[in-house]
Every structure is written in structure tokens, then in C-alpha cells.
Protein: Rit1 N-terminal domain-containing protein
Amino acid sequence: MDEFKVIKGNDLGRIVERDIFNRLCSIRDDSLRISHWIEKLKTSTNHENSPFSTTSRIPFAIRFGNRRCGSWYTLSHDSVSNTYSRSLDWTHFKSTDGHSAYNLGTFSLSRLNLQLIQSLGNPLTRHSAVIIDATRRGKICPDSLTRTLPVFLSVIDCLRVEFSLLDSKFAQESILMKKFPQCVSQSELSQIFAWIPKWKHDLISSIGRERLLNWLKSELESVQGPILIDWLSSNGNALWNSMDDEEIHQFMLDAQLELHKVPFVYAISASNVVQSHHQTHIASGICTCTPFDTSAG
Structure:
């Protein structure tokens, strides 16, 4: 007689969780959750109460899936045709590049993600872009979004200052700090800022000064002010803000900028969905969970 192995509750949970069907269904549902709240912004009137709120731009922004995990979370659902589509736009901000920037003072010249800058310069996207990424369970946001992305945008803005395309006050550390979330320590920021002059030189040497100047000038000709970042969870809640609405208001007044021309990047972490929206799918294809309702609030 064959012996049956007793599987404890925790072991069963891990087996089900690691099942490929369960993972794919979870990714599908989590993707639709992100897509749903972005679509809701098209009809939301919350931003009308705050003329300096920026989230109303998100539905117009290009949705970049950050390679590789983030590309799974750009799924959209068309309720009319009942079809699914996935954004083909991507960025490649690696977490290890952010670690190397801090620990080794290196800046990746092989993953420049210049398509992001093109998106920010496009009036049709309201000078905004959405980047979606995910990381391991238990971590709020991947380092690709909290470190690598801010490092890249800091270098771009400092280059704009170098080429007289942006006021020099926007290269001050007090402004550059707004590109990094509060989870990045002051000592880490100090080391990163110390390396920026070298990274500018490396980028200029790699592309060519005249060529880089002309490209930045043509792509960002219609924008005003520095590139700002907001970090959001998968359901649209703020993880960290570069500036709150009141601070944005004062910032615009002091700098004499028009808000709709200030470029914004919305970094969305899909990581916490796995914890808050756990699905249980059976490998045989018989699903015991309640399907994700895209009409829910």
C-alpha cells in the first residue's frame, strides 16, 4: 500500500503559490488592477479640487514596462471587445545599476532609456510617463525605481543645466533630492551627488557634446523645469511624493513655471499587489477564487 505524505498547511500554500498557473493568473489580475485605476482617472474629478495635482495626466502617459518583471504588468482590458492587450513600450532600469552608482560610482551607458525622455517631451503625453516594475515579496518598491531611475533623471537634468537648457538652480542638491524617495538615506544621496559630474562627462564623451545638446534641445524644447517623480502603489496610493500639492504650488510660483509643462514620471510598484491581492488558483484549471472585478471601486 502506497504511503501518503502529509502536507502541512504552510507547505500546501507554498506549493499552490509557486504553481505556474497560479502565478500567471495572479499577474493577469494584478495587471488589470493597475489598468483599472488608471482608466478611472479619465473620469475622476478629484484633481479638479486641486489645480496643482498631477495625477490627471496619467491616462495620457505612455505606459512603460520596466524589463523584465514590469513588462508583465502593462496588460489592459477592452470591455467592448473583451480583448486584452499589452504595452510594447519598455524601459530597462536595472536595480544593480542603482547599486553600482552608490557603491562603485558607475553609470550605465548601455541602458540609457532615452525613449523615456522622448515621452516626457511629447505634449500628447502631457509631458508624463508611467513606469511599472515589480520585485520580490516583502519589498515595497524595486531599487530600479527608487535608485536607478532617479540617478538617470538627475544626470539628464544636470546635463540640461550644463547646456543652458535649464536654470542652474534646478541642479542644486535641494532640488535633486526631490528625485529620490525618502527610503534613500542622506549618506547615500551625498555619494550619488558627488559622482554626477563624472557621469555627465561620461555621457557627453559617449554620445558627443554637440549631438547630445541638439538631441536634448529638440526633445525637451516644450517642457519647463526639472523632471519630477511620484512613486505609487498598484492601486494608485502614494508611496512617496517628490512634492505634495501645496509644495508643488509654491514651487511653481517661485520658479515661475506652468505646471502642465513640467515633466512628471510616475513610478508604479506592482510588488505589494502580491501581498494584498492574493489569489488561489488550482493547477487543474478549476479556480476557487473570486475573479477580479474590473468594475469594482
